[in-house]
Design brief:
Layout: E1 2-6, H1 12-19, E2 25-31, H2 37-44, E3 48-51, H3 60-71, E4 78-81, H4 90-95, E5 100-104, H5 116-123, E6 127-134, E7 144-151, H6 158-183, E8 185-188, E9 191-194
Parallel strand pairs: 1-2, 1-4, 2-3, 4-5
Antiparallel strand pairs: 5-6, 6-7, 8-9
Helix pairs in contact: 1-6
The chain binds 5-O-phosphono-beta-D-ribofuranosylamine (GRF).
5-O-phosphono-beta-D-ribofuranosylamine is lined by residues 7, 9-14, 82-83, 103-105, 130, 165-166, 169.
């Protein structure tokens, strides 16, 4: 199943998604930061890359139209956000209704938005984690598909905690994506379940 990965930074999760291809294939990378490490990594992997700043376009709708035009020949069935630091607009949401997945480094609905790891440390929670969710028009508000806890240690800095969360994400995200494509998802109100679950 062809999917497209969206990323703005390091791209450690994006690279893991490529490493664990099987049920799905990562046919393209979309980045809003041409100079991001993830862009370099995907070029080296020989994958198709769209790397343009939103500032190169008159507005966000035009930026997202350009992404859709780039993606069209690859026909991705899902858009998989992995550290894509931009709110998805109505153009992409309309083209991929409930077919956009995001990864967030906290147990939503706790600590949405930017710097979720810093927020969790500042609050003093003892457990945080990571969430895979469907993307809607809000910031980290869409229906939750999967979550994994990660303990916060007294000695943690934002860097050590973020790294430990990423290690969990690297296993979780490819596994959840594969399962979605193998089994299918059902959305009942806000509640998501796998089609073959509970049969
Ligand atoms: C991940 O922790 C993800 O949860 C968040 O941003 C981080 C991206 O890291 N959305 P990387 O670019 O995959 O290394």
């Amino acid at each position: 199943v062809p999917v497209a990965v969206f990323a703005s930074g390091e791209g450690s999760n994006a690279v893991q998604l490529v490493r664990k291809e099987g049920v799905y294939r990562v046919v393209a990378l979309v980045s809003d930061r041409p100079e991001a490490p993830v862009v370099r990594k995907f070029r080296r992997l020989g994958r198709a890359v769209f790397a343009r700043s939103v500032r190169d376009f008159p507005d966000k709708a035009a930026f997202e139209e350009a992404i859709l035009a780039f993606l069209r020949p690859f026909a991705p069935r899902w858009l998989v956000l992995a550290g894509y630091m931009r709110l998805v607009g109505p153009t992409l949401l309309g083209a991929y209704p409930w077919r956009i997945l995001n990864l967030h480094p906290a147990l939503l609905p706790a600590f949405p938005g930017k710097d979720a790891v810093g927020q969790a440390l500042a609050y003093g929670v003892k457990v945080t984690g990571t969430t895979v969710h469907l993307v809607d028009q809000g910031v980290d508000t869409g229906p939750i598909v999967a979550q994994r806890p990660v303990d916060v240690r007294p000695t943690d800095t934002p860097e050590t905690l973020a790294a430990r969360i990423k290690r969990v994400e690297h296993r979780l995200y490819p596994a959840v994506l594969s399962r979605i494509l193998r089994e299918g998802l059902v959305l009942e109100g806000r509640r998501v379940r796998f089609l073959r679950e509970g049969e």
